[in-house]
Amino acid sequence: MSAVDYTVDGQTYEGWFVKPDGKANAPLVIICHAWGGLGANEKQKADIIAKEFGYAAFAIDVYGKGKRGTTQAENEGLMYPLVGDRAELQKRLAGGIAAAKAHSGATKAAAIGFCFGGLCVLDMARAGMDVLGVGSFHGLFRPAENIPKPKIKAKVLIEHGWRDPMATPEDVLAIAKEFEGADWQLHAHGLATHAFSTVGATGDATQYHADTDRRSFAYLKTFLAEVFG
């Protein structure tokens, strides 16, 4: 495992790469971070993917090297400009995919993301980026204004906490309509809120839920086996 610097349009970003033991040409899972930037949770998930699933894992960075949030205000200041400028976000995502594939040498790739990262991987699908499948975990469903009628080719997995105030039942219906015609599946977890897979998250709206974390990754393992099969 190691930190990996890469550049997109002259700006430096810092990713995190974990390689599975004994597998030189393993498929690649790209990981998109939550609103605070690439941190401990993404690295923990990368370890699971490499050690338990047997795939290479590369957590990308869409904020820039050294740009991380530690408070709600800082996180909002990093995330909201990109949520409001989806073309810029998508450019950084495409650059991250290219860097991850180049570093890993993988020919097959999928992507997963958490919270804001869930929105990121859904945008990868919306924009037709070079991934075979995407998995969104307690992701934001806000559509991309620059892609009003996406033509989605990637397989899509959505792991959703039914009590998530940031993605309401109405939002679930809206994304189902937006993704009509795509190969998508959605699992709603009745006891889960936002951030159910973020170890250490506490609060009424954002709370880690161990059972949902475990179940959602079991679904992911099956999904990735199909995507890479």
Main sheet characteristics: 8 strands, mixed
Distance between the termini: 25 Å
Number of helical elements: 6
Taking Cα atoms only, what radius of gyration do you get, to the nearest Å? 16 Å
Strand content: 15-25%
Which residue ranges are poorly predicted, with pLDDT under 50 across at least 5 consecutive positions?
none
Order of helices and strands: EEEHEHHEHEEHEH
Structural class: alpha/beta
Number of strands: 8
Based on Cα principal axes, name the global outline.
globular
| DSSP helix fraction | 25-40%
Strand order of the largest sheet: 1-2-4-3-5-6-7-8
How would you describe this protein?
- The protein is α/β, with parallel strands linked by helices and 229 residues long.
- Helix content is 37%, strand content 21%.
- It has 6 helices and 8 strands; from the N terminus they run βββαβααβαββαβα.
- The protein has helices at residues 40-53, 72-83, 86-104, 116-126, 169-178, 210-228, and strands at 2-8, 11-18, 28-32, 56-59, 109-114, 133-137, 155-161, 184-189.
- The chain has an 8-stranded mixed beta sheet, with helices on both faces.
- The protein is globular, with a radius of gyration of 16 Å.
- The protein starts with a strand and ends with a helix.
- The model has no long low-confidence stretch (mean pLDDT 96).
